[in-house]
Amino acid sequence: MIRLVFIILLFAITFSGFAQKQDQCTRILFVLDGSNSMTGKWESARKIDVARRLLSRMVDSLDKEDNVQMALRVYGHQSYVPPQDCEDTRLEVPFSENNAKRIKIQLKTIVPKGTTPIAYALQKAANDFPDDLCRNIVILITDGIEACEGDPCAVSRDMQKRGIILKPFVVGIGLDPEFKETFQCVGKYYDASNEERFEDVMGVVISQALNNTTVQVNLIDDYGNPTETNVGMTFYDIFSNKPRYNYFHTINLKGVPDTLILDPLSEYRMIVHTMPPIEKDSISISPGTHNMIGLNAGRGTLEMRKPRGAQYRDLQFLVKNLAGEIVNVQSIKQKERYLTGYYNVEVLSLPRLQIDSVKIAQSYTTKISIPEPGIANFSTYQNGYTSVYVLRNDKVELVANLPDDEEFTSLVLLPGRYMGIHRPKSSHNILDAIKKEFEIKSGASVRVTFY
Question: Does domain 299-368 have CATH number 2.60.40?
Fold first, then answer.
């Protein structure tokens, strides 16, 4: 066995993180290799002795941190090899507060004996955490690759999809290039070439486990400036596809996009909730530095001019992309911002009005207009079946079916030529239907009687 440490980080998905130091509970589970190969010499002592010493120092330091709990799982320490026991793992110290002393005592009792069931130990480790909203982190320390039938990479991928594992850290010593390549599917690789380097790497990993990282999102307008703002943003974990953070983009008092905080242990898919939304995939956050994320998000405003009269106080219209997909349902009372480009508008009037290729330009308000409607008042001598049609371009198009149990009905209609057809319920003769043509003018009303 030639590898010393590989670290896999598992943690529960959260929605917050608004201070650089983690405010919510963080649980760190150390999973230690207790297999026979850990008796091998490495620099000043046996590998197991170096691991004991550095882990003891690490848990003493972590014990002083607020909102941090620790636990210890060991594998390969219960059964001698041969034969090979590929289920040799046990939670030796469960999670609790201020248990650094218990972990250090337990570390002294470990006698390396058996094989290296990494995948099986990781599967079991997932059950060691209480079911709450703490950040659950697993640090697996081993000097060798998988020795059983398990596949650590497959376990890692599966648990990432379930929202338990995020991108792992891999720390190794003296690894051949082929072994380094093997661990690319597990996570990010670090090389611990000696005891001092191992301690430094562990410090880096713990720092990343306990701290968030600053990020600035630049929403770029059509002129190339980061001026777009006042829109929601959601960051999803890329493997579990669960949301971790929700922010509302803000320009601060210095006139630049305000800083937000993200956990660097995850990769993200970001959705900016513009209309239509913008998506950016595979976002990696570099810990310990200020990260910049840029997206093209030029926007303009769409408004409908209100016709005279009170008939259209609650009128709505559909805003669609050029492929016909609905982007938004907008009220005549609202102004709404859209990404720059061309849209088709369908006004939900009677009859519906189609306005194609409406241009939305950067920082400009596009105003669309519709004619002032008129009113048609329908009356019948008895209840029956009544349909209203618009006559345009030599076509007859259905506008509305009137209630069959009312003798008086009114419709607000756009100007144009119309036809109404009515047949009483008592009639069973198609020739008894009454047809009336009429015209609607803006701001006027017309009476249509079926007698």
Answer: yes
pLDDT (tens digit, 9 = 90+) per residue, 57-115? 889 988 888 889 999 999 999 999 999 999 999 999 999 888 999 999 999 999 999 99
Could you give the residue ranges of the DSSP H alpha helices within 183-337?
Answer: 195-210
In the block, residue with structure tokens 């990404």? 339
DSSP 332: T
Rounded CA separation 272/226 (Å): 14
Domain locations in the chain?
A: 5-210, 213-296, 299-368, 374-450
Q: Taking the mean position of all CA atoms in its chain, how far away is CA 349?
A: 36
Q: Using CA atoms, how far apart are residues 263 and 304, in angstroms rounded to an integer?
A: 43
Q: How far apart are CA 244 and CA 88, in angstroms?
A: 35
For the entire predicted model, the pTM comes to 0.78
**In a 10 Å sphere around its CB, with 0-12 CB exposed, 13-18 middle and 19+ buried, how is residue 50 labelled?**
buried
Class of domain 5-210: alpha beta
The CATH-assigned architecture of domain 374-450 is: Sandwich (2.60)
What is the Cα–Cα distance from 172 to 194, expressed in whole angstroms?
A: 10
